[in-house]
Amino acid sequence: MRFIRFILYILLSNGYVYADALMVNKSMFNPSLAKYFVTEQGIRIELELSEENFESFADLYPNSLRQVMGLQLSPIIKRSKLFLKNKLFIVADEKALVGSVVSMHGGKKIVRDPKTYEVLKPQPKNAPAMLYISIDYPFVSEKPKKIDLIFQGNATLGFILYHKKQVVNDFAYLNPKQTLSLNWEDPFYSGFTSNTLKRLYRYPQMVYLYVEPRLVKLESLTRLKDIVELTSFTSSPKNSERLNALQEHVQNYFREDDALLINTQHTQADKIIVDYFEVSTSGLKILDNISQVNEETIYVGISQQYYVNKLPQDIQYKWQYLYKKIPKIPFSAEDPVGPYPSFIYQDDPVFRWENLIKDKTEPKIIPVRTKTGVNWNLPILGETKVWSELPTQEQSTEIIKQTLENIRTAFIEKREESLSKELSKVLLSESTTVIKKELSKLFTPSVVRGGVGAIEEFGTLSVDKIRALKDADGFSANVSGEVNVIAKHWGHSDRRALKYQLIIDMIEKDGEWFIKDFSLLDLKDKTS
């Protein structure tokens, strides 16, 4: 602790390097990290050292710090050179690079969200002390083709490497030696020789097919510079206006595409969505602000959406947008049973999905017929009269559960006219238009990668404050509960656990229960 306080006192610099990685894993939360940055001039290592690893790098420290640590004093130039020659060094095209410490400062650890790796704001006041060291290794010759990263120390370091602005690997643990091939013409294709260090998003293009009961989605992610070439887009300014123009150009380009065969019929998309993405620790992150982006590292996401009346039997497509530089691209088809990953090849660009699902049951709304009235047989009037009675807690809960499940089924429909038709089986006819918008807030919530999700299942549900309606036979109730939302897109299954509060008015008509009114009071993430 004495050493920590000393560092915080004598080292005043507080400059940090923030860098996004690719996918969340344990190595990125390792207490100590090494971040490599490759430029045309050389390589810089940014070390972030926790207290447990302070002593492992003591040969780099000035004698003032070594004295506080109780270590032997010696000339810093000699011992730091030996450390950077024998313990932490880099070889470029078989020539060892000479490293030198260019800065060293103490500070607090940059605490990040354990799920997204985003920097927490505000930072916790009790964040542990860290030591930040920058080391430069200038190149001996210009633009080497191969470099070896070598670490013979006894510390455990998480590491990541950037070639210019392109991240090369997902976070991993720094091994004694790793070899990197550099592509200076296009750093996207720079990569480590070890398969364990190949990043998830290493392909310039990826294709996904999603088959749902009422929707077929053909989605692709393509590097911006490649989609510009593939679609023959021309525009010189590099700003948000250019990206907006490209977005419109791509939509028009793919609107003419009718190569997708659904049940042997050529089909054009009913809807086309074009978005820009950057790679983040949680996978893909949609770009809401495109005014300042690095065009070299972003993807263009294209979602071609086809509305269907029921689950297709056969889908076929000849992928005509293959990039000539690579022999294959990853492809995945996913239906209600599960995903089927494979590849699309240059010499065989046709992919096909066949309906092999055994359960062919179509989603269907089931009338809610829970009885709550008391039958009185009135022989004088020659009829049976049902006198309305407020439902019990158990009856109200069952009615609302079944009704919400029916609404979930209705929202499977993607065509507006089909959705309205299905909702009319649940809502009173005079209230369908008004309530549909309110229902959409709960049943089609937004998700992190753009677009909307769908309710996968309802969790706990609580019904209280059951009261009679003033102007009709029925009841009103306050409902709170939890719901799991899912959106399958862009190669991911985005999930959200939400909690909600709502008020619902139910009316019994001809033995069936319908929604008279619906108001969503609150909807937020379960963790908030």
Structure summary:
The chain has 528 residues and is α+β, with helices and mostly antiparallel strands. It has 8 helices and 29 strands.
What descriptive keywords fit this protein?
single chain, alpha+beta, seven-stranded mixed β-sheet, 17% helix
Overall description:
The protein has 528 residues and is α+β, with helices and mostly antiparallel strands. It has 8 helices and 29 strands. Strands 1, 2, 5, 6, 8, 9 and 10 form a 7-stranded mixed sheet that branches. A hairpin with a 4-residue loop joins β21 and β22.
Element layout with pairings:
Layout: H1 2-10, E1 33-38, E2 42-49, H2 63-69, H3 76-86, E3 88-92, E4 95-96, E5 100-108, E6 129-138, E7 146-151, E8 158-163, E9 166-167, E10 172-173, E11 177-181, E12 191-192, E13 205-211, E14 215-223, H4 224-230, H5 240-255, E15 260-262, E16 265-267, E17 271-280, E18 283-286, E19 299-307, E20 314-318, E21 328-334, E22 339-345, E23 350-354, E24 374-378, E25 383-387, H6 393-410, H7 416-423, H8 432-443, E26 454-468, E27 474-489, E28 492-509, E29 512-525
Parallel strand pairs: 1-8, 13-21
Antiparallel strand pairs: 1-2, 2-6, 3-4, 3-7, 5-6, 7-11, 8-9, 8-10, 11-12, 13-14, 14-19, 15-16, 15-20, 17-18, 17-19, 20-23, 21-22, 24-25, 26-27, 27-28, 28-29
